[in-house]
Design a protein that fits this description.
With 314 residues, the protein is an alpha/beta fold. It contains twelve helices and nine strands.
């Protein structure tokens, strides 16, 4: 896992706006094709997504949970205080401590969590606060209710991801989470060694790990799905580019977690935004449905969906 399925210890600059051009270039060099609003909606009617593969850090979460807990962020962006944790068990324990030691607020301007007596649990703040947790819950429920399978693939720890989701009542939406486990991937520090006996049922098992890359794992997990029936949503343009011959890709450009446009894009790809009103509900509901579809079409138009190579023609 460490060579291709693990994070680099070197922190990456967080100057988001200056990186967007380079990110799009990565995707374009991979040969992916971006389709606009009308094409997305047309294809959604024919190729409804049946499985969504989510990255976790800065895709589901607002901040980079793994790097914050490991102390790997740049000094100016590091808001989690020591002790830091490099192992799966250590990060689970550290999340428990953070949730129990203070209240936090996610600052949208600085993209950081700050301690605030009127704030929320650390896990909730890391996901963007109560309103965003509700938005995530609504998205996951909508997708699951329509039969879409939700899977997380992370270079962080399975147990840490499960801990965050469990604390906020979101874990049940994800039957499978793939990532790093144990202490082998990133080593241990003194804190990790001090909590070795704190075994958690949230820790990942060997079948959660051992994959070489997200693209190779997705190819296996898709089973008999068509390429346009699966989508990876990720804040790393290299990961989105890597699935060019495997499935669709949605890039979280701001690298601050999915926002309404990305969430509505996933709904559209799963045909949730184009569903007709229930029969017998009356004209009032029909008009409400029409307005909702109009809103979602506008939001989808803000997000590029990168279509897989060799399947551009419908």
């Amino acid at each position: 896992l460490k060579s291709r399925g693990a994070f680099s210890q070197r922190p990456r600059p967080q100057h988001v706006a200056s990186k967007l051009g380079r990110h799009r270039a990565v995707l374009q060099q991979a040969g992916l094709q971006s389709h606009g609003q009308q094409r997305i909606m047309k294809e959604a009617r024919t190729w409804a997504v049946k499985q969504v593969f989510f990255d976790f850090d800065q895709t589901i979460s607002r901040c980079h949970v793994f790097k914050q807990l490991a102390g790997w962020e740049e000094e100016s962006n590091q808001f989690v205080p020591p002790p830091f944790a490099l192992s799966e068990r250590g990060q689970i324990c550290r999340i428990t401590e953070l949730n129990g030691s203070g209240r936090w607020v996610y600052n949208t301007n600085s993209h950081m969590l700050v301690e605030n007596a009127d704030g929320e649990a650390w896990t909730r703040a890391a996901l963007g606060g109560a309103s965003r947790v509700d938005a995530l819950r609504s998205l996951f429920a909508d997708l699951c209710d329509s039969g879409v399978v939700l899977t997380i693939i992370t270079k962080g720890f399975v147990g840490a991801v499960r801990k965050v989701l469990k604390e906020e009542g979101l874990l049940s939406f994800f039957p499978k989470i793939y990532g790093n486990i144990g202490a082998e991937s990133y080593g241990e520090n003194d804190y990790d060694k001090s909590i070795r006996e704190e075994v958690s049922p949230l820790e990942g098992t060997p079948e959660c790990a051992g994959w070489a890359s997200k693209a190779s794992l997705i190819r296996v997990l898709m089973a008999k799905l068509k390429r346009r029936e699966a989508v990876l949503i990720d804040d790393d343009p290299a990961e989105v580019a890597s699935v060019a011959r495997v499935c669709r890709g949605v890039f979280v450009e701001a690298q601050r977690g999915m926002s309404s446009p990305e969430m509505d894009c996933l709904r559209a790809l799963a045909r949730l935004a184009t569903s007709p009103p229930d029969e017998g509900d009356g004209q009032e509901v029909h008009e409400q449905d029409r307005q909702e579809r109009k809103r979602r079409r506008t939001s989808v138009g803000k997000v590029a969906v990168w279509e897989p190579i060799e399947s551009a023609a419908l």
